[in-house]
Amino acid sequence: MTQYAAPEPYGGDWKDWARRLNVFLNRTQSALVQQTGGETAKEDGYLMFDRSTVKPVISQSGAYKEVVVKQSVPTSSVGASGDTAGLISWDTNYILCLHRQPRRQLNIWKRVALSGGAF
Q1: Is the pLDDT higher at 11 or at 119?
Q2: Whole-angstrom distance, CA of residue 63 vs CA of residue 42
Q3: What is the span of the domain harbouring residue 54?
Q4: Is 25 among the domain residues?
Q5: Is residue 109 pLDDT above 80, yes or no?
Q6: What burial class does residue 45 get, using C-beta atoms within 10 Å of its C-beta: 0-12 exposed, 13-18 middle, 19+ buried?
Q7: Which residue in 28, 38, 44, 110 is a FRET match for 3, CA 20 to 30 A apart?
Q8: What is the tens place of the pLDDT at every residue in 64-108?
């Protein structure tokens, strides 16, 4: 990703530096950008909101890929209607991941127990 340098404070006019810093922050630290259709994923790691799918996407390997989170925790390891590979879900005990695209009722959800405290 391109890195930008904040303006250095110099001289005795702190108000001028604060104005320049405000301009810098407004240009480089915007809210989540909305994808409108003409963007390219030439650099990895850009998080955007895709208006056409109404979902967040992230740039990876020259393409935008959907960031998927299941709103509810699966009740079993069997896939359900609407599940797609890459879904992530969690509760107080587990992090769950749908590791492959469902084709029929298979055990496709994998989970890992949460352990320990804060790190």
Answers
A1: 11
A2: 8
A3: 32-65
A4: no
A5: yes
A6: exposed
A7: 38
A8: 888 777 778 888 888 777 777 778 888 888 888 887 665 666 768
CB atoms within 10 A of CB 94: 16
107 and 72 assigned to the same domain? yes
How far are the Cα atoms of 3, 66, 88, 109 from residue 58, in angstroms, in the given order? 18, 6, 15, 23
Residue type, 106: L
H/E element holding 98? strand 94-98
Closest CA to 111 of 84, 100, 93, 79: 93
CA distance 89 to 95: 6
What pLDDT, in 10s, does the model give residues 20-62?
887 877 776 655 566 666 677 777 777 788 888 887 887 888 8
Cα 22–Cα 27–Cα 33 angle in degrees, nearest 5: 130
Residue 101 inside a domain? The answer is yes
